[in-house]
Amino acid sequence: MASVTGGALPGLEPDKDQVLAQVHRILESAAFRASDASRLLLTFLANWSLDRPGQHVKESEIAISVFHREPSAFDSQSDSVVRVQMARLRTKILEYYATAGAADEIVIEIPKGAYCIVASQRPPVEIPAEAEAPIAIPQLHAAAPARRQWIERIGFAFCGAAIALAAVVLFRPQDPGVAAPVRQFWSGVLAKGAPNAIVFSNPRLAGRLAFEGLHYFRDGVDSLDPANQNLSYAGAGDVRSVRMLTQLFDALRQPMRVRSGALLSWEQAKESNLIFIGRPEQNPALHKLPRLHDFYFKFATGIVNLHPQAGEKEIYACSDRPYTEDYAVVALIPGLDPPNRTLILAGNTTYGSEAATEFVTREASIQTLLAALGVKPGAKIPYFEALLQVRINNETPVWSRLVAARLHPAEAPAWEAALPDER
User: Fold this and answer.
1) Which domains, from first to last, does the chain contain?
2) Element (H, E) at 215
3) Considering only 114-128, 179-193, 243-257, 304-318, which range has the smallest mean pLDDT?
């Protein structure tokens, strides 16, 4: 095939990991950093093309998934958003290969008239040593939302497609700069030999943002018509959490994939180490929930402390809006299919989930947790459940502390059906 810059080798196709790494490189280039629309569109096309080889995506699917058009109202004849943004994306890719990507081995193209990416491999271009520039370790940046609509106890801001930007990680030896407690903790979370899946919550919503507003789906009240249901929003804190975990996994040189809770299949859940961002009961694809022994989320109430100890409360709820305080759970339990494992990072609000994620990426907080669990340096990480208190300022978690830390009983069931008061 013809290359963007010439010199491609026909028939020499890069593998999936090479394509993902090249897409990531393009997304982090100067040409793309200032264009959220192009970043989202390229990410969507790359994921679609790699997950569904040979299947061309429809214009309406792009309009709905990437540009938030209403399924029942989108008309490609009167709304040219996809065609306009596709033309801009092709131009930006050409700009990239004419500048920063001139010597890249993998060439990404979007053929005219098609909504897919095509990748080819070309011989490396030799450049003078003095002209070489170091390639930064990829750090994905979540796109800022156009607007925010906060619903009941949890705010939903970014379309789930934005989180897919964090799904690309390069594979290299572990960064020696990662602190020992951080390596120790995550070696206990990620069972060897299993895929790692970061799962962000997709609560079942109803209504329309521009009209009556989004709200949690109400059984027996809201229409069962799929056109009136919405699974495309995730919490703003979830987006920032995925970015933090992307940076950490990159430093640990651990492969990972990001999955929407609405799209997580039963097979993927069984075969993977799962890291849930947000409350697992808000993942509608799951037939069962990761079950904790000491804590669970009660809808519109808070985190229930099933076995309160001296000085502890029975319910830990977030403050009223604007949020100033929240509580979150950090828990490691067996996976759906042992020896795989499940890590839960979930607050009453999306900000609590973000604080829980930050807690398990920082050396000092991990040391505090391991000390509370009685885990010595280098020892195996046991299954546990922990509760955090979180302070929030201007929709950002600014402080957290460990309230309780308990070992998860080996005999406790790890996955069960939801209780009646869980959603």
Assistant:
1) 16-131 (1.10.10), 149-416 (no CATH)
2) strand 215-216
3) 114-128
